[in-house]
User: Which sequence fits this backbone?
């Protein structure tokens, strides 16, 4: 029988053998204390290390944990999309395998869902949400690239949101099905596409402040940052030529 929990937590994972068990442990501990039904869904993005065995070891003897073992690396955007469409939850949250934004941030999201929002995102920028903070900051070159990139993103695709890239976003099931069934971006720019599509389809977006901790082992490279610029332009073009409307 298919389970229909209140919350699905989707964790995309590439080569995460050194930190996935710790992150899953934090998620599992939090969820065990909640009054609602839940599931954890790990999407393996073609890792070539021991991430799968770490996931299998952690899940052994525990309920409501499953994973997609994809052998080919296709990118974080592809993995989140795959997880969102495979999840069963009424609310579907994706978060990073490095646990930079702790699962307890969902406590801040619940009241905004109760007010009727379709999508709730975490932001590390105080201009989005009072109290947002990078507790452990990124290196300065990443912050500079991020700040310049965000101005470009606002100009081209998602005006009014200062942090589109924080990897902690939750979506109601109907909005998740609508957005992720037509999304196209497989790599790091997918967050921008999700928010642009949310606006395009008329879904409401709420924002809560993040207490964010940078992990020096992040998989995002300089090339990844540059790729986001081109992906942002592609999103804008897709909106102009109505690619997403035809797909839906």
Assistant:
């Amino acid at each position: 029988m298919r389970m229909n929990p209140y919350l699905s937590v989707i964790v995309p994972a590439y080569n995460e053998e050194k930190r996935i068990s710790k992150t899953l442990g934090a998620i599992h501990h939090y969820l065990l204390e909640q009054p609602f039904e839940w599931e954890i869904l790990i999407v393996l993005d073609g890792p070539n290390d021991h991430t799968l065995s770490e996931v299998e070891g952690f899940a052994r003897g525990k309920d409501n944990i499953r994973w997609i073992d994809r052998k080919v690396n296709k990118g974080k955007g592809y993995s989140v999309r795959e997880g969102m469409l495979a999840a069963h939850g009424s609310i579907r949250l994706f978060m990073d395998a490095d646990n930079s934004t702790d699962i307890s941030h969902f406590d801040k999201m619940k009241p905004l869902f109760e007010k009727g929002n379709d999508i709730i995102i975490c932001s590390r920028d105080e201009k989005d949400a009072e109290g947002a903070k990078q507790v452990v900051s990124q290196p300065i070159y990443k912050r500079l690239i991020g700040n310049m990139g965000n101005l470009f993103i606002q100009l081209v695709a998602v005006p009014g949101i200062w942090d589109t890239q924080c990897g902690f976003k939750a979506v109601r099931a109907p909005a998740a099905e609508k957005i992720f069934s037509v999304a196209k971006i497989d790599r790091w720019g997918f967050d921008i596409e999700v928010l642009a599509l949310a606006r395009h389809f008329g879904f409401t977006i709420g924002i809560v402040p993040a207490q964010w901790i940078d992990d020096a082992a992040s998989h995002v490279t300089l090339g990844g940052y540059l790729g986001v610029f081109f992906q942002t332009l592609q999103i804008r073009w897709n909106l102009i030529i109505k690619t997403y409307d035809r797909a839906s």
In short: The chain has a mean pLDDT of 92.
